[in-house]
Write a structure and sequence with these properties.
Structural class: mainly beta
Radius of gyration: 17 Å
Mean pLDDT: 96
Number of helices: 1
CATH superfamily: Jelly Rolls
CATH class: Mainly Beta
Distance between the termini: 23 Å
Low-confidence stretches: none
Number of domains: 1
Number of strands: 22
Strand content: over 45%
Helix content: under 10%
CATH architecture: Sandwich
Shape: globular
Length: 243
């Protein structure tokens, strides 16, 4: 029998610094909730709005898989590996922090804010060589279907279009029309699924979800998804064991 946990949008932590308005699905920085530390290897899911030309100065990371998904706007990135890039809507960026990196992130626009998801996963292997990847995904390829955008390094999906990470995790985006429904099959035994509704509303395994709600489900082979309105969703298929 499957287990699940519901995270309503309004139960997330919030930190409004003026230039940054952040919602935290899990404990992060000044937000601490002992019942919201992680979901399996999913450690951080931040929903950030960054003011024009503002951002995060150079700061370090290590032993974390970091995925950035701009929902609107563009993010300027620079890191200690020598990468300089702008990540746009319909692109996904990943960094394997491994033995350690430093990077900065700023809103690339001076006249409008940016909304992005930043997601951290505990890695499968510690102290790997840091790496960076970025890829553009066509939005028409996820209309009424699930578009795999993140996958394990060496997997068939990563050999295709998906950006690779050091973890047995798959991220899929879907732009679903009202009435669309499908069973999502968990990709690896022992994984759970965390479904995050970016826009619109959907029902997942009988649980109605609205914008920015999430449902985590584990001990199951599949979850049933139905779009109650036109909806955008992110499905994170991730190991539940930290070891």
């Amino acid at each position: 029998m499957s287990n699940s946990i519901l995270h309503k949008s309004e139960t997330r932590g919030r930190a409004n610094h003026g230039w940054l308005d952040a919602r935290h699905s899990f404990s992060f920085a000044g937000y601490y909730n002992p019942e919201r530390m992680h979901f399996g290897v999913l450690r951080v899911l931040n929903d950030d709005i960054v003011a024009p030309a503002m951002g995060f100065g150079t700061h370090p990371h290590d032993n974390m898989e970091i995925i950035t998904i701009p929902l609107r706007g563009a993010l300027r990135h620079r890191d200690s590996m020598g990468n300089e890039a702008v990540i746009q809507q319909n692109e996904v960026q990943v960094m394997s922090a491994g033995t350690g990196i430093q990077h900065s992130e700023f809103n690339a626009n001076r006249d409008k804010d940016i909304n992005l998801l930043q997601i951290w996963l505990f890695p499968k292997f510690r102290n790997v060589k840091p790496r960076y990847a970025q890829h553009t995904f066509l939005p028409e390829d996820r209309v009424n279907q699930l578009q795999v955008v993140v996958a394990p390094l060496g997997s068939e999906e990563e050999k295709g279009d998906a950006v690779g990470i050091h973890q047995d995790a798959w991220f899929s985006l879907g732009t679903l029309k009202q009435g669309f429904e499908e069973a999502y099959n968990v990709k690896k035994a022992g994984n759970g699924v965390y479904v995050f509704v970016i826009e619109g509303s959907a029902t997942v395994d009988g649980q109605p979800l609205s914008k920015r709600d999430a449902l985590g489900v584990w001990d199951t082979d599949s979850v049933h998804i139905k779009a109650d309105s036109d909806a955008e969703i992110l499905i994170m298929d991730i190991p539940m064991s930290l070891g």
